[in-house]
Amino acid sequence: MAARGACAALVMIFLLFVLISHTSNKSISSDSVVETRERMSNGLDEEGQGDAPVENNKNAGISDDTVSSLLERIKVLEDELSSMRTRMDDAENREGNNGIPDEMAVPLPTTKSFPSVRYRNEETRKRVLITGGAGFVGSHLVDKLMLDGHEIIALDNYFTGRKKNIEHWIGHPNFEMVHHDVVNPYFVEVDQIYHLASPASPPHYMYNPVKTIKTNTLGTINMLGLAKRVKATVLLASTSEVYGDPEVHPQPETYWGHVNTIGPRACYDEGKRVAESLMVAYNKQENVKIRIARIFNTFGPRMHMNDGRVVSNFIIQVLQDKPITIYGNGTQTRSFQYVTDLVDGLIALMNSNYSLPVNIGNPEEHTIGEFATIIRDLVPGSTSEIVNQESQQDDPQQRRPDIRRAAEQIQWRPQVLMKDGLLKTIEYFRAEIDRNKRGGKPPPEPVRHGGLESRR
Ligand SMILES: NC(=O)c1ccc[n+]([C@@H]2O[C@H](COP(=O)([O-])OP(=O)(O)OC[C@H]3O[C@@H](n4cnc5c(N)ncnc54)[C@H](O)[C@@H]3O)[C@@H](O)[C@H]2O)c1
């Protein structure tokens, strides 16, 4: 209001100044100017003859040109004053924008509602760093730890992860998102580090094998260095791939594995093996508290649609009524765990005091052919036929975790029935396919990457 008054006053002073100066210079009375303006605005001449233009101003004794230019000037100033008033009125009416014009104002975020999280006091609340926090497994771990009342920093370079996976926590006081690549050092005060950053499916880790090796070696060194500095416990998301194409079945943690060091999967398999060695070295040499989870095949919502794994490929094919492709005769076996079981296992391991590798997987073993049938039967009306194609090089014939160590050391065993997990995953993929359709995206294609989909 004060600004508006000041402006109006300024304009009026200016008008007065113009009038006074012209009055004194040209001996023109203000009355005559007003009168003349009225005449002009009424479109009358001196004799009141209607539309004829005013030709001169005999009363004022000044030329018509001067009067016209004065009137024009007054008109311009009046217009400016009026538009200024309008703008100020608008600004006052937009109190929410603090006077910023609408087109420039960024809408303030509306209050976001979050799932209710457990209250923890300083003593029991942990600050937790999760690398790869925007990925499939990482995002479920974020959810679980957030709900449990901890402070979470989700670090990711978004190579395969998506902000969408954790966006529901953005803005929560306990949550922080960090865009960072673990290949570069990162410094933060934390109590625990879940080190999950690494591409996990064959098409992703084979896309840039050198980067995969760097992520698993340099990235792990960086996280171990951080753990050493801040005295945090660090958990490595290792993999059943460290067993390679196993000659021992089921695979216990004591089995050293059977890995091809120069095969297409070596960047990942050997990368994780070196990561495990680094963990043990930092533990022995630097007293860093370490946990090593050897994760077996995992499935669930937020899996990548095109990651070439058995579960995602089969579900996508069945939901689109396309043939289910099996590489080989389908007798090779796999065991799949549901993602919430894995997350429970990771947390139990982190909070134990066990430093040796622990298998986290579901020992329920099925042939790939059985999986195809199970998934098809869970989608009513599906007519997908099963098609066998040429088998793949290095495809392991059997994969099943021996989970006795997990049961003994961290009292963990999987709880979710495969069928229940599959139903939730099918619903997730169905919604994703619909979302893509609405967004005009082409339907997802199952990925064949050297046929490795039958291995995961
Ligand atoms: N899902 C499984 O079946 C499975 C099996 C065995 C092991 N694992 C391990 O679990 C972890 C998580 O796997 P996932 O299935 O969630 O895979 P994912 O690809 O969904 O998640 C990995 C995350 O790490 C991020 N990332 C990759 N490189 C990075 C880098 N250099 N810096 C920062 N972030 C980076 C990705 O963007 C992604 O968000 C991986 O370490 C994987 O090796 C998973």
Q: How does this model look, in words?
A:
The protein is of the alpha/beta class. It has two domains: 2-95, no CATH class; 127-455, NAD(P)-binding Rossmann-like Domain (Rossmann fold, 3-Layer(aba) Sandwich), CATH 3.40.50. Helix content is 41%, strand content 12%. The strands form four sheets. Strands 3-2-1-4-5-6-11 form a seven-stranded parallel β-sheet, with helices on both faces. β5 (233-239), α7 and β6 (289-295) form a beta-alpha-beta unit. The radius of gyration is 37 Å and the shape is elongated. The protein starts with a helix and ends in an 18-residue tail after the last helix. Nicotinamide-adenine-dinucleotide is lined by residues 131-132, 134-138, 156-161, 181-183, 196-200, 204, 215, 219, 237, 239, 295, 297-298. Keywords: Coiled coil, Cytoplasm, Decarboxylase, Golgi apparatus, Lyase, Membrane, NAD, Signal, Signal-anchor, Transmembrane, Transmembrane helix. Belongs to the NAD(P)-dependent epimerase/dehydratase family. UDP-glucuronic acid decarboxylase subfamily. It is found in: Cytoplasm; Golgi apparatus, Golgi stack membrane.
